[in-house]
Each structure stands twice: as C-alpha cells, then as structure tokens.
C-alpha cells in the first residue's frame, strides 16, 4: 500500500456521533470535502458544503438563524438544501448562489454522510451497530483525529496481536499475540472476519476492573469489518474453563478518511453488564481513551516514517496480517469502482 491510498467515494462514512450534531454548527472534512453539520429544529441532521459561495468563508464558523445558516463574513444566508435565500445590500439573489449538500442518514447514534454520486446513496446499505443505542447496553465513546493514512488505521484494527506489545498492561496480555487467528473473507459483501479465541488467558485490567473477574479468563475476540468504514470487535469474557458468567463487550470503530494523511477514529465501548454503573463507565471511557491514544501516537510516528520512504519499499507479511491484507484488497476494489 502506498503511503496515501485512494478513497472509495460511493460509500457511507461516519461524519459525527449523533450527540455531536446539535444546534451549533460542526465542521468536519470527509474524503477531502469540508462539511458543515447541524440539526434542524425538527431534529433532522443536515450536511452542507462548508464553504460560502461568496468568498469561501467556512459555514461551520458561522451561525444559525433557526434552520438557516448565516455566513459569518458578509451574511449570505442558506436554507437546509444549501440554496442561498438572502444576500446583503440587494433584493436579487443570484441564481448560482448555492452550496452543495450531502445525503445524511442517522443510524445507531452515528451520523453517516455520502460524498459520492447522490443517486447511488442508499441508506439501507449502511452497516449496523445496534448495540450503540440498543436496550440493555451502555456505551462510552469518543473520536480522535489521526495524522495518518486511512489504511494504517485499518491495518491497526485488523491485527490485534499489537495489543500485547503496544497496549501491554491495558488490554494486551501475552496470549493475544500467541494465539493464532482464523480469517473469513466475503469479498463480494466487503466483509472481513478475524477471530482469536483464547481458552486460558491472563485478564487485563480493562476487563478485570469492569467485570470484577479475578483470575484467568476465557477471552474471545471476533472482528467484523464492513469495508470501508465500520469495524466491530465482539469481545466475550468468562472465567477460564467456564461459559458463565459471560461478559459481552462490543467495541466499535468507525474509520473515516478525512483527507490524504488524516483519518477520524470514532470509537465506542458498549457493554451489557454493569449497565447503570457510572464508575465502570468512567473507567472504560478513560481506559479506552488511553488505548486509542497509544494507537494514535504509534500511527502518527509510523506515518512520518513512511513519508520518508523511497518508492517501492518491501513490507513483510505473516499469518497475523491475513485479515489486514484482505481488507486492503477489498478497499482497493471499492476505490477503483
Ligand atoms: S464569504 Fe460568506 S458572505 Fe462573504
Ligand atoms: Fe490498538
């Protein structure tokens, strides 16, 4: 993979958590397109191109007047479709006074946008993460931008053997890297599944403190990656040698290419135990944020290194890379479509 891979445009990408989109304008860049997001009085999320047609001032740095956006520079005013309905100092609004708008779909507390051909946007194609807003689950979440190519974050998430080395003392234990994986690829659907089942493993603090299990555990990690954007890690923990009690944690990542060399890392940890316990929520939020920042730091460093490589350097792949390589193949195919 080159340092900056091409993006698949005709796909849904997560631009924000639902909770981030409200009565204030939010600026995000998806596939290199600057977007201004906000929510109408009726509660509908809107995504407009984030550049005023007049002198290109960012609408995300402007203000809302009801459901309309008033440019913060000279007051050009846009409705939810991006059509300009007011300009200062004259009655006539030029016919070309409009900014682009993007299809939006809000599913499972994620705000998805479509940057490609508008006619091809089908919200039914959005992959689901029902635990994020599901009954019986509690979720902590966040987002970190990373100064690396989208592909580096996909590689990172597809191979969890790095937990042992990069996240030791947090979520990594020796058994993660020691245990072989099984990989299943559905090329046509664009889904990669990677599983690692540890029968008798050390319990890392992430699970010891959240579940209360003392001693060794059975730990199962089942990844489902719905290319290009949604990644689910179904994590199941029980005491070693037992199936119960079973603690299920759904770890969600939405991986959104912002621009070449920049990616949004949306993360969430959902659990179906201790659901009303604020102490467990606080612990998991801090613990996962720490883990995410370890990845962010590593990927920032890695990208700087790759940027100085001469063309044609040779990577070396082994068994642990099977899922990541399958993901790269699928992403390359989607980008070429
Ligand atoms: S740049 Fe927006 S009104 Fe002038
Ligand atoms: Fe990691």
TrEMBL record:
Residues 12-113 form the Rieske domain. It comes from the Bacteria. GO terms for molecular function: 2 iron, 2 sulfur cluster binding; metal ion binding; monooxygenase activity; oxidoreductase activity, acting on paired donors, with incorporation or reduction of molecular oxygen. InterPro entries: Cholesterol_7-desaturase, Rieske_2Fe-2S, Rieske_2Fe-2S_sf, VanA_C_cat. Keywords: 2Fe-2S, Iron, Iron-sulfur, Metal-binding, Oxidoreductase. Pfam families: Rieske, VanA_C. This is Rieske 2Fe-2S domain-containing protein. It comes from Actinacidiphila bryophytorum.
